[in-house]
Structures are given as C-alpha cells and as structure tokens.
Design brief:
There is one protein chain. It is built from 15 helices and twelve strands. With about 375 residues, the chain is α/β, with parallel strands linked by helices. It has a six-stranded mixed β-sheet with strand order 2-4-1-5-6-7, sandwiched between helices. Strands 3-9-8 form a three-stranded mixed β-sheet. It has a three-stranded antiparallel β-sheet with strand order 11-10-12. Strand 8 and strand 9 form a beta hairpin. The longest helix is centred in the middle third of the chain and has 32 residues.
C-alpha cells in the first residue's frame, strides 16, 4: 500500500537530517531554512523480528520487510498559510500524505540558530498547528460555498458535504484541529474526501542531542505532556546520531549501538510507530523464493489482502491457506502443521490477523 507520512517542522529542527538518516542518505542538510525545496520520498523498511523467526524454519532466497513511504516536505514558517516562505507549496504537498510526523527540536545548541531565537518545543508545535488550522479553514470555507449551492437544490450527497464542511469551519474557527472531532461513520468519507491536513493523525518526533537519549530532558517532558493531552504519539530520537549510524556497516552499527547503550536504532521505533499511526498491519507470505511482509489496513478481509500482491488475486480469490508463526515454530514446517490440522482454509469473509502467514488460491 502506498500510504505516506509527511515529515514537517520549522527550519533547523533536524527534519532533513532525520529524513536522510531514514533513507540511509547519510548526509546532513545545510544549516539554513528551506533546504528541501521539492518533497523527497523515501521508502523506509519497518523492522520486524518475525521475519527471521519464519526464516529459521523456511529456507529462502531473500527476505523483504514491509515499508512506509516518508515524504520530506519543505520547512514551514509562521505565516505559511498566507503564503510566507514556501507556504503554498508546503501545504499542497502535505495534503497528499496520510499522516503527519512533526519533528520538534528538543536540544539546545548555540551554533544552530532557531528561527524564533530560542528553543521552545510547545511554541513550535503551536506555530505549525496554527498554520495548518488556518490553511484548513480557508479550504473548508471554499468547500462549504461549493456544496451549499448544490445542497439547496436537493442533492443529498452535496447536503452531507455541506454539513460536514460547516462543522469543519466552526471547529477550525475556534482553533480546533479536525482530528479532535468525533466524526460519525456517515461523515468520515466526506472528511477523507476533503483532504484536510489537521484531520491526519500526528506523531511528534522529539529530536534530542546525545545527552537527551538516555533520559528525557525538560523539552521532551513538555512534548510528552502535550501529546498525552491531545491524544498524539511521541517518539524520541537523535537525528544526528541516526545519520551517523546509517553510514555504518552492520558490524560497526552493532558496536556503535552497544557503546551508546541502545538496543536498536531509534529509526526502528520511528518506523514501527509510523506504521501503527497509519492504521496498518502485516501478514506474511513464505516460500523458497522469498519471505515477504505485506502491508494491509487493520480490519482487511482475505481478498483485500490478496489484492495487495496483485489485483488478479483479489478478483479471482477462492480461499486462503492460513497458519500462525507460533504453529510454524511448534511443528517445524508446513507438513508438520498440516499433519496436526493447523493449516486453516479461510474464505472471503475472513478478517486477517496481524502476523498471519498466508497462501492464496485464485482463478481468473
């Protein structure tokens, strides 16, 4: 699934350094605003130890993890909603993403200038949230005008769009992001159709220095408290350290992490949390050619899961052969599971469980 998360942030918070580390580019961006003019897209693997567990029982030629597309978007400044800086360009790019990762500066460094003169993560969060709310308000007002005319003529779909747009205008006008509203099942398709930025789920990425890795500093503590209040996620990471790790080979990487007292790169936690934020889960296919993690939305049924591999699989779906990783480890291989009656045949209404190993039977 080509779902995307957009990395946003004020200039000089470490956003592009983090993006470069995510995509193993390794090079730190220049220390000036707007260092990313066009959005760059990186495909970031989602670390999953279950792949190695499957490989221990099924010998294969290659292992392919799931991935999330991360979009690095031009730095935002106060006034972007009125076209300041690269405001309009920024806002156009962020509308096409499915979730927002806001990099928040949580370190002090006199050599790296902050656009507002001093480090204050809650002010930075408020600056970006305010600009996104202003931008959405303008879009919602236009949407309301567009559908209000058709609604008066008795168009039921237009009436729903107009009612949802009115609700958006009222919320945004009071300074409330749209993700904070309790949308009904009937309203949700209209909200999604509107592509409002503040309806996207948000994850705050606290960028810290080396000293802030072990224990939360005051900046991180403030962000965590705010995130808990608004129902957002938080990941703490050092973009500078991650960019150094990304340049190392596997053995050097392990030694570096051990020296730092880290169980894994911070990017692993960020990738997993982004995956969760987007409402995604994984199922596996496993054979001699490859073991692969496939991305589906939570709640997907078997035919939809099959369609991620190829549309023909979904169109001609007959049934799925399903087993669990735990059964694979208990019985050793597919023959052992089959003998024990642990290979299940599931039909079109089967809701895929995270971690299922599946083979599909189809006919087109």
């Amino acid at each position: 699934m080509a779902l995307q998360a957009g990395i946003v942030g004020l200039p000089n918070v470490g956003k592009s350094t983090l993006f470069n580390a995510l995509t193993a580019a390794g090079a730190e961006s220049a220390n000036y605003p707007f260092c990313t003019i066009e959005p760059n897209v990186g495909v970031v693997p989602v670390p999953d130890p279950r792949l190695k567990r499957i490989q221990a029982h099924i010998k294969t030629q290659k292992v392919i993890p799931a991935a999330v597309e991360i979009v690095d978007i031009a730095g935002l400044v106060r006034g972007a909603s009125q076209g300041e800086g690269l405001g309009n360009q920024f806002l156009g790019h962020i509308r096409s993403t499915d979730a927002v990762l806001q990099v928040v500066r949580c370190f002090d460094d006199a050599d790296i200038t902050h656009v507002d003169g001093n480090v204050d993560p809650l002010r930075d969060i408020d600056t970006i949230e305010t600009e996104l709310i202003y931008a959405d308000l303008e879009s919602a007002e236009r949407r309301l005008q567009k559908y209000a005319k058709s609604a008066k003529g008795g168009d039921r779909e237009a009436k729903l769009h107009a009612e949802v747009a009115q609700k958006m205008v009222e919320a945004l006008g009071s300074g409330m992001p749209l993700r904070a509203l309790p949308w009904t099942d009937e309203e949700l398709p209209s909200v999604q159709h509107a592509q409002m930025i503040t309806s996207r789920p948000i994850l705050y990425v606290c960028n810290v220095d080396e000293a802030g890795i072990a224990a939360d500093n005051a900046h991180v503590a403030a962000v965590r408290a705010h995130a808990e209040h608004v129902g957002a996620g938080v990941v703490k990471i050092s973009a500078r350290i991650e960019s150094e790790i990304a340049e190392l080979d596997e053995d050097e990487k392990l030694a570096f992490l051990e020296d730092m007292g880290l169980p894994e790169p911070g990017l692993a936690a960020l990738a997993r949390e982004t995956y969760r934020l987007l409402g995604l889960q994984t199922y596996f296919t496993a054979g001699e050619k490859e073991i692969r993690a496939w991305t589906i939305r939570k709640g997907a049924k078997a035919p939809e899961a099959a369609g991620v591999i190829h549309s023909d699989f979904e169109r001609g779906f007959i049934r799925a052969e399903v087993y669990t990783l735990e059964d694979l480890e208990k019985y050793g291989n597919e023959a052992g599971m089959k003998a024990a009656g642990r290979l299940r045949l599931e039909g079109k209404e089967y809701v895929v469980v995270d971690g299922d190993v599946m083979h599909f039977r189809f006919n087109v």
